[in-house]
């Protein structure tokens, strides 16, 4: 009987941890990363990324319109607003872009 009770308590604790960790950040908070836009890869498999001021490289994921606009800004300094994560495909840092602000005067 005690074993069953311990097992149920352990399952409840695991369930509570999973439930609490599944919520997103409060208020839909976004990350802001500053750096320069760069193109990586070979045609037809190129992608754009942000080389951040701290040296990190973030692959940019964006909707078609924003992606098209960002591809024209090769080398430009921008402030990118979005959600930073890790790509499931290759384990590298990526950012789901929502908006950007150009920081240079080009």
Q: Which short descriptors sum up this protein?
A:
about 110 residues, alpha+beta, 5-stranded mixed barrel, 2 helices
Question: What's a concise summary of this model?
Answer:
The chain has 106 residues and is an alpha+beta fold.
Describe this structure in words.
It is a single chain. This protein is of the alpha+beta class and 106 residues long. Helix content is 26%, strand content 39%. The protein contains 2 helices and 5 strands; from the N terminus they run αβββαββ. It has helices at 2-21, 64-71, and strands spanning 31-40, 47-52, 57-61, 77-86, 93-102. Strands 1-2-3-5-4 form a 5-stranded mixed β-barrel. It is elongated and about 70 Å long. The model is unreliable at 23-28 (pLDDT under 50).
List the SSEs and their pairings.
Blueprint: H1 2-21, E1 31-40, E2 47-52, E3 57-61, H2 64-71, E4 77-86, E5 93-102
Parallel strand pairs: 3-5
Antiparallel strand pairs: 1-2, 1-4, 2-3, 4-5
Structural class: alpha+beta
Which stretches are poorly predicted, pLDDT < 50 over at least 5 residues? 23-28
Alpha carbon gyration radius: 20 Å
Q: What is the H-and-E element order?
A: HEEEHEE
Mean pLDDT across residues = 84
Helicity, as a percent range: 25-40%
Can you tell me the overall shape?
Answer: elongated
Strand residue content: 35-45%
Measured between the Cα atoms of the first and last residue, the distance is 73 Å
How many distinct helices?
A: 2
- Count of extended strands: 5
- What can be said about the biggest beta sheet? 5 strands, mixed, barrel
- In spatial order, strands of the major sheet run 1-2-3-5-4
């Amino acid at each position: 009987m005690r074993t069953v009770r311990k097992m149920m308590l352990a399952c409840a604790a695991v369930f509570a941890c999973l439930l609490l960790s599944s919520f997103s950040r409060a208020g839909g908070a976004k990350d802001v990363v500053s750096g320069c836009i760069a193109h990586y890869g070979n045609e037809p498999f190129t992608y754009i990324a942000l080389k951040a001021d701290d040296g990190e490289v973030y692959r940019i994921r964006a909707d078609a319109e924003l992606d098209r606009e960002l591809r024209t800004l090769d080398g430009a300094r921008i402030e990118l607003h979005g959600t930073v994560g890790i790509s499931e495909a290759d384990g590298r840092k990526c950012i789901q872009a929502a908006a950007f602000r150009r920081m240079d005067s080009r």
